[in-house]
Amino acid sequence: MNKTVLAFIVIIALALGVFGFFISRQQTSKTSTKQDAQVPFNESYKVSDNKDLVAKSLSEVDQLIEIPDKKNAKVAEIVNLKSLQKKSKIFSKAYEHDIVIFLPTKTIIFDPLTKTIRDISKESYYDQVSK
């Protein structure tokens, strides 16, 4: 009977340890999700003031599709992907350091490494983008 009580105590201790582990992971997950959600939209990307990068990106995308109103396009690099993905579904196909072209009527996500367009959306964040 003494071994039975000892085994029961060990099982309870293990169960509490496992339970505590999962609770702490869940709390950590919630904290990081709240932090990502609190990142302002304009801190999730970096608008480029590098005229060569802007011209190169617009030129590469324009070879794939015609970009209307290129003069007013705002070109940015994704620097906080998780935050952007929480803002809109269009960013679900994006990766860190992809180029986002913000236009008055659409948003284009471009991969500068493979020179491909990941997505085009009629959602426009043009007015929210600070230049």
Structural notes for this entry:
The protein is built from three helices and five strands; from the N terminus they run αβαβαβββ. It has two domains: 38 residues; 88 residues, no CATH class. About 8% of the residues have low confidence. The longest helix is centred in the first third of the chain and has 37 residues. It is α+β, with helices and mostly antiparallel strands. It is rod-shaped. Strands 1-2-3-4-5 form a five-stranded antiparallel beta sheet, covered by helices on one side.
The best one-word shape is: rod-shaped
Number of helices: 3
As a percent range, the share of strand residues is 15-25%
Query: What's the helix-strand series?
Result: HEHEHEEE
What is the strand tally? Answer: 5
Total number of distinct structural domains:
2
Distance between the termini: 75 Å
The largest sheet has its strands arranged as 1-2-3-4-5
Helix/strand structural class = alpha+beta
Biggest sheet descriptor? 5 strands, antiparallel
| Low-confidence region ranges | 29-39
Relative helix content: 40-55%
User: Residue-averaged pLDDT, rounded?
Assistant: 80
Radius of gyration: 23 Å
Helices, strands, pairings?
Blueprint (H helix, E strand, L loop, with lengths): L1 H37 L6 E3 L3 H14 L9 E5 L2 H7 L11 E4 L4 E5 L4 E6 L10
Antiparallel strand pairs: 1-2, 2-3, 3-4, 4-5
Question: Which descriptors apply to this entry?
Answer:
single chain; 131 residues; alpha+beta; 2 domains; five-stranded antiparallel sheet; 18% strand; rod-shaped
What is this entry, summarized?
It is built from three helices and five strands, in the order αβαβαβββ. The chain is an alpha+beta fold and 131 residues long.
